[in-house]
Structures are given as C-alpha cells and as structure tokens.
Specification:
Rossmann fold, alpha/beta
C-alpha cells in the first residue's frame, strides 16, 4: 500500500522536519501551509531533489471550506491518505488572562483545536475501514504546556493543547477498531520560529539551560518521535501521549 501523509503547518519548524523525514521513509508528502508558500515550496523542492514525492497545498485549518479543498487536492494528486500530522498551531504574546481578549481566544482555539478536529475528521473519512479505507495513523502535536498551564504567559494556549490531548484519547478509542491509530506528542521548549511569532525569538536559548537536559530540543528530534508513532513500529500504540520535553 502506498503511504500518503498530510502534514499541516509543514512549511517550517517541526512540520517541515516531519515532511523531510516522512519522505525519507517512503511517504508521498502533502506539505500544508497557511501563508508562507515560498517556504512550503522549498520543503517540496528538497524532497523532490532527493527522489521523493511531495506537493504543497494551501489551507487555513480553521476554515472548513479550505480544509475540504485541501483534502480533495491530496486525494486527486497523491491518492488515499494513510497518515496525518496535525501540526499547525499558533501561540501569542505572553500575557495574563485579564489582559487577553475574546478575539485572541477564538483564534487560539479555532486553529489549535478546531483545525485539529477538522483535519482529523477528514482523515477518518478516508482511513477508516467503516468508510472503505485501509486504516492509517494520526499524530496530533500538543505541547507540554498542557500539563504546566503556562501561568503568566499563555494559559489560553495551554488550555487549547489540553483540549487536543483529550481529543486524542477519545478519538483513539472511537476508531481503534477501524484500523486507525491516534496518538499525540507533547513537545517542550523546541528551537523553532514559533517563539518569534509569540514575541520571544530568543526564548529557546534563554530557557534551555534551565531545563533538566540543559538545552532546548530540535525540530528533528520532534520529527523522529512523530514519525515513529505513525510507523508500524508503533503498531500497538493508540491513545498514547508522548512527552518530548527534555524532562520538563
């Protein structure tokens, strides 16, 4: 069976690392991006240059019509989906709850939670033996923030990732008899561009020495964990949440 994977938010950081590693392991890769088409196209070029199969596909995962169109494009160009990495996500600037507004919370949950659920729904419709599929695997990218609460920084982000954790466990049990495994990875402080988008570009280097392992993680380390959970090496893992946070 051909292995076809869609990775959301794959133009940079953990998503891009997942795309490159998945291609090395024989997946045809759909590289989703929201706005940065140049970065997504570069990931695709890198995969193709190494002899792999890849395409880029634009979609804001918080917009149902765009998600539906994205999955239709993957169906048409790569074939039936066998793997999904729900990696697209956002943070915001550090703030207390009494300094946040509803618009921030809606964005946080629309992308991090609703986007994850929308993409998972479409993946289940394609993978489930109930719908004529051959099975597959889903990995949701959560955050160790879900266990820490992120007080004084972004309790809304932590709450959204907590929702992702609960969704992971529930969906795993819902589709376990239909050939689909669903797991999550909770990264800690990882050296990617997401910190800059939250207004703290040097956060990984600053916080890293304070962690038990005394360094931040890398996108490649997260990709190894995520792609392992997608693989047959993790064939009896479902509903699992793997902390990849350097002991934090």
């Amino acid at each position: 069976m051909d292995k076809v994977i869609l990775i959301t938010g794959a133009s940079r950081g953990i998503g891009a690392a997942c795309a490159l590693l998945a291609a090395q392991q024989g997946y045809a890769v759909a590289v989703n991006y929201s706005t940065n088409s140049l970065a997504a196209d570069e990931v695709v070029r890198t995969i193709r240059a190494a002899g792999g199969t890849a395409m880029s596909v634009q979609a804001d995962v918080a917009q149902e019509s765009q998600v539906l169109d994205m999955f239709a494009q993957v169906d048409a160009k790569l074939g039936r989906l066998t793997g999904l990495v729900n990696n697209a996500g956002v943070v915001d600037v550090a703030a207390r709850i009494d300094e946040m507004d509803l618009a921030r919370w809606r964005r946080m949950f629309d992308i991090n939670v609703m986007g994850t659920m929308l993409c998972a729904r479409e993946a289940v419709r394609r993978m489930s033996t109930r719908h004529g599929g051959d099975g597959g695997a889903i990995v949701n990218v959560s955050s160790i923030a879900a266990t820490l609460g992120s007080p004084g920084m972004y309790v809304d982000y932590a709450a959204a990732k907590g929702a992702v954790d609960v969704f992971t466990v529930g969906l795993a049990r819902e589709v376990a008899a239909e050939g689909i495994r669903v797991n999550a990875v909770r990264p800690g402080i990882i050296d990617t561009e997401i910190h800059a988008s939250g207004g703290q570009p040097g956060r990984a280097q600053k916080v890293g020495p304070q962690l038990p392992m005394q360094r931040p993680g890398t996108a490649q380390e997260m990709a190894q964990a995520i792609i392992w959970l997608l693989s047959e090496q993790a064939s009896y893992c479902t509903g699992s949440i793997l902390d990849a946070a350097g002991g934090r």
